[in-house]
């Protein structure tokens, strides 16, 4: 692979090659977790932060996990005070874009668990991208209660001011 004798040109080509072919490396998945559910639950919610660190758009075409029969990308919206979920066919991230999968918004719907999934364990989730590459990320299963404690950026979603908790 070292045909290029000029170091500078070689470096430049390597960078271009990386940007063009390895979009897998440009999708960064962090803060990934699954909300634990009572035993026997057939549906669990998955959440994460997705960042496209590359120079080209990234599309998540499908999501799957060995631990579940089916994984869908959902979005929760509120229309006329009624909360609804709909399936999104894909997630598109422009270069530099961040998509947050979070309770009350876009999320993964993990369905038909193939085994018991307990809080504390990690579940591998695979993101299939539009260019055919795959990005795998470990999702940590957390109890629902841990969500508030561990999610400092979420005050906006739980605004109880004025409702009086006493
Ligand atoms: Cu859903």
Gyration radius, to the nearest Å?
19 Å
What is the count of β-strands?
10
- Report the end-to-end length measured between terminal Cα atoms: 70 Å
**Ligand identities:** copper (II) ion
Instruction: Write the element-wise H/E pattern from the N-terminal end onward.
Output: HHEEEEEEEEEEH
State the secondary-structure class: alpha+beta
Assembly level = single chain
Major sheet summary line: 10 strands, mixed
Q: Poorly predicted ranges (pLDDT <50, ≥5 residues)?
A: 3-8, 15-24, 149-166
Mean pLDDT value: 82
Number of domains: 1
What is the molecular shape?
Answer: globular
Helix content: 10-25%
Q: Given the structure, what is the number of helices?
A: 3
CATH homologous superfamily designation: PCu(A)C copper chaperone
- Please identify, by name, the CATH architecture: Sandwich
The third-level CATH topology is: Immunoglobulin-like
How much beta, percentage-wise? over 45%
* The CATH C-level class name: Mainly Beta
Question: How would you describe the overall organization of this protein?
Answer:
The chain has 166 residues and is α+β, with helices and mostly antiparallel strands. The protein has one domain: PCu(A)C copper chaperone (Immunoglobulin-like). 16% of the residues lie in helices and 46% in strands. The chain has helices at 7-21, 23-26, 144-150; strands spanning 27-35, 43-52, 58-64, 68-79, 82-88, 91-93, 98-101, 106-113, 122-129, 134-142. Strands 1, 2, 3, 4, 5, 6, 7, 8, 9 and 10 form a 10-stranded mixed β-sheet that branches. Strand 1 (27-35) and strand 2 (43-52) form a beta hairpin. 21% of the residues are buried. Copper (II) ion (CU) is lined by residues 74, 85, 107, 109.
């Amino acid at each position: 692979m070292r045909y290029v004798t000029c170091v500078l040109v070689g470096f430049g080509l390597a960078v271009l090659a990386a940007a063009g072919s390895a979009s897998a490396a440009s999708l960064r998945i962090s803060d990934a977790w699954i909300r634990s559910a009572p035993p026997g639950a057939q549906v669990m919610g998955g959440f994460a932060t997705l960042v496209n660190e590359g120079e080209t758009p990234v599309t998540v075409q499908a999501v799957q996990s060995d631990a579940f029969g089916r994984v869908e990308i959902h979005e929760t919206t509120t229309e006329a005070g009624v909360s609804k979920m709909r399936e999104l066919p894909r997630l598109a991230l422009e270069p530099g874009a961040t998509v947050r999968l979070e309770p009350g918004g876009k999320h993964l719907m993990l369905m038909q668990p193939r085994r018991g999934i307990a809080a504390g364990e990690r579940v591998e989730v695979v993101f299939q991208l539009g260019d055919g590459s795959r990005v795998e990320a470990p999702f940590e299963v957390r109890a629902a209660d841990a969500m508030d404690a561990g999610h400092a950026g979420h005050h906006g979603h739980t605004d109880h001011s004025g409702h009086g908790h006493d």
